[in-house]
Write a structure and sequence with these properties.
Helix content: 25-40%
Distance between the termini: 32 Å
Shape: globular
Strand content: under 5%
Number of strands: 4
Structural class: mainly alpha
Largest sheet: 4 strands, mixed
Length: about 260
């Protein structure tokens, strides 16, 4: 069955040189983003432990609808995802800065594009097999360079920034595509703010610290960290504890701050 997935802009994303290359990284990330969504949809109905830390109980059907909108009716990706182009050329300076691994150029319209910011985005890993990289289950010695694995994610056993893959960053940007998800709440899914004015990015901000009655359901990182929390809990068999503000949101891949993905 064919998949409906974003388009990678050539030659903007390098597909030359030995594999795995930049193109392979993004291609894997596209599949990882969909996999995060599908695992969430598989687990959300029976999840009564993780979910309340991210969203209001009364919103569960709507939260599920957001993930379903990304997955599409057959679970192969909403056809609208194929309208999205992914590139590295930044057309909205200063869209890429010291805290931003990616951003979407415009939330409205039917053909948005995601800009991957070279300073940070290539530091994020994958959990699927990259072309030319080999299988880490066969040769564990190769995984640190390409794959995010449980012993790296678990750390001190709390929800933390290390859970974030390049695929999770793409999922965050998909959620800003109004044509894809705005219909669920009749509101844009944006990057909301905490009471102190800081953007609601990163694990600490979205885990029990964002207003669930008003903001969590329309905050992109709430969906992303919920999906990552479920995924790594399932894969690693770990009941992750609540994150601490420092160090669990201090993403060294984004300058020691939560990654911002507007």
């Amino acid at each position: 069955m064919s998949r409906s997935l974003p388009t990678l802009n050539h030659p903007d994303i390098d597909d030359s040189g030995p594999h795995p290359n930049r193109f392979d990284q993004v291609e894997a990330a596209i599949y990882d983003a969909l996999q995060l969504v599908l695992v969430t949809l598989e687990l959300i109905d029976k999840d009564s432990v993780v979910y309340p830390h991210y969203f209001a109980r009364r919103d569960k059907d709507k939260v599920k609808q957001v993930f379903e909108a990304v997955a599409g009716p057959c679970g192969t990706g909403n056809v609208l995802l194929s309208n999205i182009h992914i590139q590295t050329t930044d057309t909205r300076p200063p869209g890429c800065d010291e805290w931003t691994p990616a951003h979407m150029n415009v939330h409205d319209g039917d053909s948005p594009f995601i800009v991957l910011c070279p300073l940070h985005v290539w530091k994020k890993k994958a959990f699927t097999i990259l072309a030319g990289a080999g299988d880490p289950d066969i040769n564990p010695g190769i995984w640190p360079d390409e794959y995010l694995r449980c012993k790296e994610v678990v750390g001190d056993g709390r929800v933390n920034w290390r859970m974030e893959t390049l695929g999770a960053i793409l999922l965050h940007e998909y959620l800003h595509f109004n044509l894809l998800v705005k219909h669920v709440y009749d509101k844009e899914i944006l990057d909301q703010k905490l009471p102190d004015g800081r953007g609601a990015y990163g694990p600490w901000a979205v885990y029990d610290n964002l207003n669930q009655n008003l903001l969590s359901r329309v905050n992109a990182d709430s969906y992303v960290y919920y999906a990552m929390h479920l995924f790594w809990k399932e894969v690693c068999g770990v009941d992750f504890a609540a994150p601490l503000r420092d160090p669990d949101e201090m993403d060294v891949d984004c300058g020691g701050q939560p990654c911002r993905e507007p």
